[in-house]
Amino acid sequence: MKNRTWMRWLGRVALGLGALLAVAVVAALVDGWRAFGQRADGERRVRMEKSPQWGGDGRFVNPQPLKNDFWGSVTGAFKASAYGSPSTPMPTVRAGRERFATPPATGLRVTWLGHSTLLVEVDGYRILTDPVWGERASPLSTVGPKRWYEPLVALDELPKLDAVVISHDHYDHLDEPTITAMKGWDTRFIVPLGVGAHLAYWGVPAERIVELDWWERTKVGGLEIVATPSRHASGRLVIDNDATLWASYALIGPQHRVWFSGDTGLFPAMRDIGERLGPFDVTMIESGAYGSAWPDWHLGPEQAVRAHQMVKGRVLLPVHWGLFNLAFHGWTEPVERVLVASQRVGVTTVVPKPGQSFEPEALPEFVRWWPELPWQTAEQNPIVASQVD
Question: Where in this chain does the entry annotate a coiled-coil region (predicted)?
Answer without folding.
Answer: none
